[in-house]
Please model this.
Amino acid sequence: MGDQTKNTLRPLLIAFLGLASIGILARIFDPPPVQPPKSAAQIKLEQEQAAERAIASQARAKADQESQARHAHLCKWVDLCSKFGEARQACATAGDFQNCINVKLGDNAWVIGDNCSNDGSLINPQNDTPSKWQCVDVSLKDTLHIKD
Model:
């Protein structure tokens, strides 16, 4: 009975392996489907979409750059006002208050008066005015040339 089973299974196994080999070879040598050529309208549409993506990318980069410049400008003012508050405290007992402020703040003394309060904060802070710690973070990133 064992020989009869071997004789029956052998042709089935050979047929299965043959069909599998044919299927594999057909997949290997079957060329990829041919895509129809693009029409002029499709090509133009793709070019327009690519141009729009490039313009949007440039606009985002410009907006990011402007935002970073504004943030840096506000940080400059946060720092100046903080120094002004410290100088006011230090100069409170000085004989010539204005001269003391001028010495402590140098060239920045003349621009601070209209923008900084006596406690060292901005008089009219913007909604997006960063804190001192955010400005320290920006300053460190700028010093170390780290990009977000």
Notes: DSSP finds five helices and no strands in the chain. The chain has a mean pLDDT of 81.
